[in-house]
Design goal:
single chain, 147 residues, alpha+beta, two-stranded antiparallel sheet, 5 strands, globular
Length: 147
């Protein structure tokens, strides 16, 4: 079994544990390291735009996250349930080239149709989805958010 096969199997098992998404809502996903290392100050100054964008990238296709998981020792899958009206608003294909805070998320996108750039207030509310291999797996509760 390859690392990609293992990722896919763990992903499918984790997603099967989730509650159904309410009508007129959708679930977005992101992957991040279990123990993210903050950027040092000197690097943050040089990469101010990167720091503004960090942790705000999501997709509606969790299988596409395998590309990013391959670069992480202990990837953690996060998800958030939002109204479809918000999801459409945050889709990269709907965003301008430069946002009001100066970030340019479209410039770094692999796929404008499947990637979303959430405001930090929403992104920080994404919950980790427990992997089936972890102790005492339970259904992850993702309460829908209001627009």
């Amino acid at each position: 079994m390859t690392l990609h096969d293992l990722w896919q199997a763990r992903l499918e098992a984790a997603l099967a544990m989730l509650d159904p998404v309410p009508v007129h809502h959708g679930r977005l996903y992101r992957i991040q390291p279990a123990n993210p290392v903050p950027l040092p100050a000197w690097k943050t100054d040089l990469m101010a735009e990167h720091a503004l964008a960090q942790g705000r990238w999501f997709t509606h296709e969790p299988a596409s996250l395998a590309f990013y998981a391959a670069d992480m020792d202990h990837p953690v899958l996060h998800a958030i349930v939002l109204p479809q009206v918000l999801i459409r608003r945050f889709q990269l294909s709907a965003l301008p080239d430069v946002l009001t805070d100066g970030t340019r998320p479209r410039a770094f996108s692999r796929d404008l149709a499947t990637e979303y750039f959430l405001p930090r207030a929403y992104a920080e509310q994404a919950l980790p989805i427990p992997w089936l291999a972890e102790p005492a797996p339970r259904r992850a509760r993702h309460r829908p958010m209001s627009p």
